Amino acid sequence: MEPWTDLFRNPADETPAIVLRRVSFRYPDGHVALSDISLEVAPGEKVGLVGPNGAGKSTLLLQLNGILRGEGHVIIEGLELNPRNVRLIRSKVGLVFQDPDDQLFSPTVLEDVAFGPLYMGLPEEEVLARVRWALEQVQMEDYLHRMPQHLSLGEKRKIALATVLSMKPTILALDEPSAGLDVAGRRNLITLLQRLPQTMLIASHDLAFVGEICSRAIVLEQGRVTGELTAQQLQDARPEAHPWPYITVPALS
Amino acid sequence: MNTEHDAHSPARRLDARAKLILALGLLIGINLTPAQAWPAYLGYGLFLGLVILLARLSPRQVLARSLLALPFVLLAAAGAPFTREGTPLWSGHLGGWRLTLTDVGLWRVGALLARSWLSLGVAILLGLTTPFAELAQALGSLGVPQVLTATMLLMYRYLRVLVEEARRLLRAREARSGELAPGRGGGRLTWRARVTGQMIGTLFLRTYERSERIYQAMLARGFDGHIRTLRRPRFAYRDGLVLGAGLALTALLTGFAHLAW
Fold first, then answer.
1. In whole angstroms, how far apart are CA A56 and each of A25, A53, A220, B214, B215?
2. Rounded distance, CA A157 to CA A138, Å?
3. CB contacts, 8 Å: A167 with chain B
4. Complex ipTM over 0.90
5. Is A81 helix (H, G, I), strand (E, B) or coil?
6. Chain A contacts to B (CB-CB under 8 A)
7. What percent helix, strand, coil does chain A show, rounded to 5?
8. Which of B221, B223, B228 to mutate to test the interface with A (most CBs of A within 10 A)?
9. pLDDT, tens digit only, all 253 positions of chain A
10. Rounded-to-integer distance, Cα B131 and Cα B181, Å
11. A217-240 core/surface letters (b: 16 or more CB in 10 A; e: else)
């Protein structure tokens, strides 16, 4: 099966994949997680989101498909997010959570990967075809009837990715995808994400990981965008190469 | 709960609605059977044995699960042998009470145990041969309100989260606990009660936070509060036939028991 050709718009279409305009978000306890965020991601572009713990990276990703709603405008492929189109937008934006255990809640891998397509209202044959295809993408075809709780962290991360790939989203929002992975698992994930054609927004502390996948990275501090790292800076992440002290050269690459 | 079934067994393939109605019929039949109709109870037992065979389950496993609830049944039935009139078999004093064990009382306890054990067997077999999501969907299609079935399904999913979090907490406690001399507990009873209370509080908070994140992950993939499963239920001719035969057998056994006793 040719996987993605039917999903992506004409390359000449310059409508940005993601636009955030003056987005702010405050948690019920009063903590301001995002403050006046504006950013734009082009179709097919892979962008990193870097910053210290508590900078608002995860909160920002949750804004993209309306799981959390704050002030400002979230525009996905030209559609401004609102209660009427939130389900359509959730099928366009695949959100991969930081902890794969939060995403894998069914008794088998099959049921977990089928969850999204089932809620898209697809016929059972199509759902099963997508499940097999998504597992092929992450090279986990043999895990169909395994219990997700019994898998290793690296395997869980791949299955968590498959659970959103089966919805064939055009945008992927990944929250700390390399956290806790060993060298081989991390390398596999880099290869996999490089190969996928989706627009990506990747929240991570692992700058070398972001550098291998993304063309640029947005720096987030205390809920505000405070700068941007170019592709060159991502590749050369010495502390003196940029003004953000928490961004360091990772030990593993 | 339902991970041990053979996914291709005839009992597993049967429509969940047919299994649910048959299980309800069996429960009603078993509990309407007169106390001394032992051949009828034997008939129900043989029927359950046939289901175990068709489901390709281990009889030992089903038996072990059904025995788990036996202490509770025994506790509930403890007074019955002494409260029925009949031929006295034994008499004695307990505190200021005079107790008389009668033959009718013993029969009653026997019947109570048989009914409870068979009823548990029905519930266990239903659980082992039907994935929980299908069961919830079957309840929904039989008229149980959507809000109840969705709540059941979420509870079932979160039950595993609760168990996982409890295991993590216990493991962390073990890792920080020193070895005690045999026969000695750690700290005074009040101290241990306080620690246990704190652990339960922590467990609640952690489970609550995690369940929120799981719910967010479900929403992110389009969850709309309705139950959707991969196996779309189609009530086939075969399902109707099995259901009809099972209900007829149940009615036959109950009717026979009422006529004969």
1. 9, 8, 7, 19, 20
2. 10
3. 221-222
4. no
5. coil
6. 62, 65, 67, 87, 90-91, 95, 97, 99, 101-103, 105-107, 110-111, 114-116, 118-120, 124, 127-128, 145, 147, 149, 163-164, 167
7. 35, 25, 40
8. B221
9. 444 545 555 555 678 999 999 999 999 999 999 999 999 999 999 999 998 888 999 999 999 989 999 999 999 999 999 999 998 999 999 999 999 988 888 878 998 999 999 999 999 999 999 999 999 999 899 999 888 888 998 899 999 999 999 999 999 999 999 888 888 888 989 999 999 999 999 999 888 889 899 999 999 999 999 989 888 877 775 666 666 766 654 433 3
10. 46
11. bbbbbebbbeeebeeebbeebeee
- CB of A65 closer than 8 Å to CB of A220: no
Give the model's confidence band at B257: pLDDT under 50 very low, under 70 low, under 90 confident, else very high: confident
Q: Are B228 and A124 in contact (CB under 8 A)?
A: no
DSSP one-letter string for B132-164: HHHHHHHHHHTT--HHHHHHHHHHHHHHHHHHH
Domain definitions of chain A by residue range: 18-241
Per DSSP, the three-state class of A19 is strand
Relative to beta strand A171-175, strand B88-94 is: unpaired
Put simply, the answer to whether A149 touches B160 (Cβ < 8 Å) is: yes
Strands A216-221 and A46-50: parallel
User: What's the CATH architecture for A18-241?
Assistant: 3-Layer(aba) Sandwich (3.40)
Q: Beta strands of chain A (E only): which ranges?
A: 18-26, 32-41, 46-50, 71-76, 79-80, 93-96, 171-175, 199-203, 216-221, 224-229
Q: At B134, is the pLDDT very low, low, confident or very high (cuts 50, 70, 90)?
A: confident
pLDDT for B183 beyond 70: no
- B1 to chain A, any CB pair closer than 8 A? The answer is no
d(C-alpha A164, C-alpha A94), whole Å = 5
Identity of residue B111: A
Three-state SS string across A240-253, please? HHCCCCCCCCCCCC
Q: Give the CA angle between residues B127, B131, B132 to the nearest 5°.
A: 80
* Rounded Cα–Cα distance for residues B104 and B86 (Å): 5
Indicate the pTM of the whole model. Answer: 0.73
